[in-house]
Amino acid sequence: MGSGAVKERLYLFDTTLRDGQQTAGVDFSVEEKTKLATLLAAMGVDYVEGGFPGANPTDTAFFAEAHDLGSTKLTAFGMTKRAGRSASNDPVLQGVLSAKADAFCFVAKSWDYHVEFALGVTLDENLASIRETVTLAVQNGREVMIDCEHFFDGYKANPEYALDCARAAHEAGARWVVLCDTNGGTLPNEVSRIVGEVAARIPGSHLGIHAHDDTGCAVANSLAAVQAGVRQIQGTLNGLGERCGNANLISLIPTLKLKPHFAETFEIGISEEGLRGITALSRQLDEMLNRNADRHAPYVGTNAFATKAGIHASAILKDPRTYEHVAPATVGNRRRLLVSDQGGKSNLLAELERVGIPLGKDDPAVSRLLDTVKERETAGYAYEGAQASFELLARRTLGDVPSFFEVESFRTSVELRHNAQGELATVCEAVVKVSVRGESLMSVAEGIGPVNALDLALRKDLGGYQPFIRDLRLVDYKVRILDGGTEAVTRVLIESSDESGETWTTIGVSPNIIDASFQALIDSVTYKLLKSGAPAP
Ligand SMILES: CC(=O)SCCNC(=O)CCNC(=O)[C@H](O)C(C)(C)COP(=O)(O)OP(=O)(O)OC[C@H]1O[C@@H](n2cnc3c(N)ncnc32)[C@H](O)[C@@H]1OP(=O)(O)O
Ligand SMILES: CC(=O)C(=O)O
Predict the structure, then answer these.
(1) Which of 297, 309, 479, 500 is the most buried (most CB within 10 A)?
(2) How far apart are the CA of 80 and the centre of ligand 1, in A?
(3) Which residues line ligand 2 (CB under 6 A)?
(4) What does UniProt give as the signal peptide span (predicted)?
(5) Does the structure show a pLDDT above 70 at 90?
(6) What ligand has the least distance to the C-alpha of 120?
(7) Residues of the chain with CATH 3.20.20.70
(8) Is residue 264 scored above 70 in pLDDT?
(9) What pLDDT score was predicted for residue 343?
(10) What is the pTM (predicted TM-score) of this model?
(11) Which ligand number lies closest to the CA of residue 245?
């Protein structure tokens, strides 16, 4: 399609707050649902499915209040009426219809086996439930859609019946008939064929896709469905959802916006600015769920544009398109050229420039530093995840790091003994002796573990440098045993932070875990002194 041609509208339906809530370990509060719905609306998705009013107190409370989502339609989920009672006499359906929502989405069975076995009703009774539910909801004055559960499995078993269910919904006035790959076992070639056959009978402008990720194909299946005719995609942020999750909107949206095949044919409601916010949105959700973001997530992971190999880095510096399929800034992410034993001078120079040490490729300090990095990585260091320690190593190579303090000795002990209450308890103590400007300072501290005690003792008294480390906090501590066995080497990574909100990671490596931890602590304190502009002794 030429750039001047009119594009077809493709609608995005987010079900993070409904199918996403069916993820093991995920439980949104009303406040979190409200916040996510607002963020999704601000990004420009067309529908936000908020939950199943009547099914649980959170969803009922969420739909008891009106939510102003602008042009985004807040959708309440429900199920078709039960057989054997009229739609107006079904309390579950009535609970959904009384929700403060702009649209309704009802799940309906469309696999004959499920109708007879799971629902225990006849095929005709199920069709009547679909028709009556849609008719009553349409009379209620809101937009209505039907999720045809197990549509693809149903179509493979009994195509005419699956189609009858879809047709019943469409003819009763459903705006959308959504074809669901509920068990997530369908592959892209099957989705293409089946959607193509359905779109020959029901206009694609009324069809949607809801794909689960049990074969890792939910995104591919959604794209295949669009190519075969559907015009609504259902999915979730970060691919949350029942079992292996749903189609990941955080991957789909950039693909639809940036890949010419889709971008030149379809219009979605997400602006370029909205697209630039997608990395932040993905990470906000992980923060809310108190879990680590997937570093390898397409488009938005911290590694999505991270390059370790020297050959790649050298070419990226000449033109990023050599190894990047899209520009990281378009999705609000950033390029990272990592320093490691897989890298060459190009990685090193890029990282040095980022931390404000511009050196020329021919500077002998660069070769010296590269040799040191490779030697240390062979010994167990991994600078790609410890950028503060890398900066210190680089500055030390250039003679640029003052010796703020020197460690004269440290000692730590773990003891099981009776405490003041007469109870047996483990007590950890540390003693650290440092010399600052020729003055010897000794500090003692107790901690919840030996490393905690060492950290507290080290930071207790650094003489005149104390004000510079007042707001230093350790936020994460990770230990990795390399090579295993009794000869094992321990790698410790410590993440620190301060009131400015900056976080930095430092590394220590030693056969002894306490020694490795202490190295990482020293680097953290030194980095903090350096960044705070503490004067040289
Ligand atoms: C594929 C999907 O993701 S669909 C969405 C699934 N999500 C959820 O189930 C989460 C919310 N669900 C719930 O809180 C509860 O299941 C409720 C409140 C809906 C129902 O609770 P209960 O009445 O205790 O029923 P229960 O959960 O044991 O079983 C579900 C019932 O719904 C019936 N049912 C399932 N799908 C449909 C449908 N499309 N139309 C009508 N009835 C249906 C089942 O046959 C079963 O009834 P039965 O036990 O009489 O056979
Ligand atoms: C409706 C739904 O979530 C499904 O069929 O997977």
Answers:
(1) 297
(2) 10
(3) 19, 107, 147, 149, 180, 182, 210, 212
(4) none
(5) yes
(6) 1
(7) 15-288
(8) yes
(9) 85
(10) 0.83
(11) 2
